[in-house]
Protein: Zinc-finger domain-containing protein
Organism: Caldithrix abyssi
Amino acid sequence: MDKETLDLLYRSFDETLSADEMTRLQKALSVSSELRQEQERLRFMRERIKNLPDTSFGKDFAGKVMTALEKDNVPDKEEIFLHIFSRFVRPTAIAAAVLLTGIVTYNLSRADVITWETVLGLHQTSLEEVFDPAQYLTVEGEQ
């Protein structure tokens, strides 16, 4: 049974087929027992569906469902605060990340060796420089 013939069979239940289509379907039904079984199966299912009791959800069922869903989707105060907080902090965090990336890149471009001190832009301070304020002031003035 090919797809086109099966499509004709399905359509025959819901719409009126042209004379040519009806002839092709009748010819296929007379030749194929598998197609006849499919036709009987479809008839049986359609009859069972027709005989099912009418079930109704009642008036305004969709409205009641939507109202219940809206009540469930109301954010609490913590969610509102976190949303507002993240809305204002996010641009600052992005700007800080871009600035930090720029500083790190600049420091690394000036350094010969990659260490945490060069990444952070810290220079090596010797113990003598720490205890000799004149040395520190001289070094600071030369820069």
Q: What stands out?
A: The helical segments are 3-14, 19-31, 33-51, 61-72, 77-110, 116-120, 127-131, 133-142. The mean pLDDT is 82. Residues 17 and 23 are 9 Å apart (CA to CA).
